[in-house]
Amino acid sequence: MNVYLSVVIPFYNEEESVQLVVDTVYNSCARLGIDFEIILVDDGSEDGTWSIIESVSKSERFVVGIKLAVNCGQTSAMVAGISYSTGEIIVTMDGDLQNDPNDIPELLSKIEEGYDIVSGWRRDRKDHFSRVLPSKIANWIISRTTGVELHDYGCSLKAYRSECIKTIEAYGEMHRFFPALASMTGARVTELPVNHFARRSGVSKYGFERIFKVIADILSINLIIRFSSMPLKGFSILAIPFFLLTLFFLFVGGCSSVFNWTTGKTSFFAFTGFLSFMASAHLIVLGILGELVVNTSDLSFTEMPEVTKKNLNGSGGKNV
Predict the structure, then answer these.
(1) Are 18 and 53 in contact (CB under 8 A)?
(2) Among residues 51, 55, 54, 26, which one has the least CA distance to residue 38?
(3) How far apart are CA 84 and CA 280, in angstroms?
(4) Domain total for the chain?
(5) Which pLDDT does position 297 carry in this prediction?
(6) Which residues does the chain have with pLDDT short of 70?
(7) Are residues 103 and 176 in the same domain?
(8) Is residue 308 part of a domain?
(9) Do 137 and 242 sit in the same domain of this protein?
(10) Which of residues 226, 250, 284 is at a domain's end?
(11) How far is the C-alpha of 305 from the C-alpha of 186, rounded, in Å?
(12) What is the pLDDT of residue 257?
């Protein structure tokens, strides 16, 4: 039987918080008088997280437990839970007790106003400065490059209409980009200030290497959003810097030859210019291949799924 709300929560080595998270989410949702389910995803934990999830899911009919065989990352865990969910509205949140389940009713209220995605904004974030500053920079870059202005892409506490999120293919660290990806379908996106607590147990699963993953995903998401239907244009733009380098090295090489600079410099600049030209040529070829793939796979003729705007106080859905 379908339910109205699905709450998806990934866990990784967080046995101390599972029961408390379930209790607080239940208390928050039960007050709304709606049918709901809580989907707990064990992302390959090595402690007793799965044992607790298994026990809770057997004793509580509204709890569903999913176990991933290995640690696949937060994005894959969220996608697994979202795929299994049956709710009209899907709320995602972290399992480390830093998100506040009492914010869920406010997220649903925003959905009622006609929005398709409501993203949490940890305006008063309780994390170390070393995590907050890179996050602020990343949020600024993502907002400017994708055109979807949000203060806090990294907040896991978000609410989605199921038709917006279930069609999205995600990998890497791309769960933070769900609002930007969904905007391609015409989804209406907004944000809501939410509570944020200091970590009560466990340790952060993110290290310095996360920065490089996020940078790579920013490049990927911009290619997807801006050039998925015209890859030649995207790769041509990427080729421009290499083409300019080619011209620069050829010019310097010409000067070296004319003015008899140190022996070997002319050959060096010529070779470097050749490498730059090959890089730009390869990017152009990739763009041409991309165009062939798009045109022969019917991707260019496929309509993005239309997002349905529902008035949940009317006939379009269930009152909250």
Answers:
(1) yes
(2) 26
(3) 44
(4) 2
(5) 57
(6) 1, 171-173, 199-214, 221-222, 224-226, 228-229, 294-320
(7) yes
(8) no
(9) no
(10) 226
(11) 9
(12) 84
> What local confidence, expressed as pLDDT, does residue 302 receive?
38
- The answer to whether residue 316 sits within a structural domain is no
Rounded CA-CA distance 82/99 in Å is 18
Six token digits for residue 260: 């008899």
Nearby residues of 320 by Cβ (< 8 Å), 6 or more positions away? 4, 32, 34, 105, 108, 109, 112, 312
Segment 98-139, tens digit of pLDDT: 899 999 999 999 999 999 999 999 988 877 777 778 778 888
Which tokens hold the place of 85?
Answer: 């969910």
pTM for the predicted model, two decimal places: 0.71
**Domain extent for 244:** 229-301
Same domain, 169 and 273: no
Same domain, 149 and 271: no
DSSP string, 92-149: E--SSS-B-GGGHHHHHHHHHTT-SEEEEE-TT--S-HHHHHHHHHHHHHHHHHHS--
Is there a contact between 80 and 41 (Cβ–Cβ < 8 Å)?
yes
- Output the pLDDT for position 8: 96
Same domain, 119 and 44: yes
Q: Record the tokens describing residue 193, joined without a space.
A: 């200030």
